[in-house]
Amino acid sequence: MKITFNRNIQFTKLIKVKGRLKEFNFRKANPTIKGNFTIDVLDDEGPMGSRIIFYMENKNDRWQIISKELPGWIVERENEMNEIINEELK
């Protein structure tokens, strides 16, 4: 029996939102370009301790948000998150 191990990717980056740094946590179940990143961030405007969880997938060599109905401050940072993911995968 052959056993293979897949490395998980997990990292945290601080991104400036509305003049404050917010901690975005990125997770991916394997190191290949295929598959989605799961990203979570604290929602300061929702109930205390709530987290927003959303997904990004690689379409045409670009990481794009695939979740619907996210706050504007997340959607506005899609380009920045794309760059962060690409840097981490190098």
Report what the structure shows:
The chain has helices spanning 72-75, 78-89; strands spanning 9-17, 20-28, 36-42, 51-59, 62-65. It has 90 residues and is an alpha+beta fold. Strands 1-2-3-4-5 form a five-stranded antiparallel β-sheet, covered by helices on one side. A hairpin with an 8-residue loop joins strand 3 and strand 4 (51-59). The model has no long low-confidence stretch (mean pLDDT 90).
General shape = globular
Count the helices. How many? 2
* Helix content percent band: 10-25%
Any idea what the radius of gyration is?
A: 14 Å
* Count of strand segments: 5
Give the terminus-to-terminus CA distance.
32 Å
The sequence of SSEs as H and E is EEEEEHH
The SS-based structural class is alpha+beta
Give the low-confidence spans: none
Mean pLDDT: 90
* Spatial ordering of strands, largest sheet: 1-2-3-4-5
Please give the largest β-sheet: 5 strands, antiparallel
Q: What percentage of amino acids are in beta strands?
A: 35-45%
In terms of quaternary structure, the protein is: single chain
Question: Layout of SSEs?
Answer:
Elements: E1 9-17, E2 20-28, E3 36-42, E4 51-59, E5 62-65, H1 72-75, H2 78-89
Antiparallel strand pairs: 1-2, 2-3, 3-4, 4-5
Q: What features would you highlight for this structure?
A:
2 helices, 18% helix, 90 residues, alpha+beta, 5-stranded antiparallel β-sheet, single chain
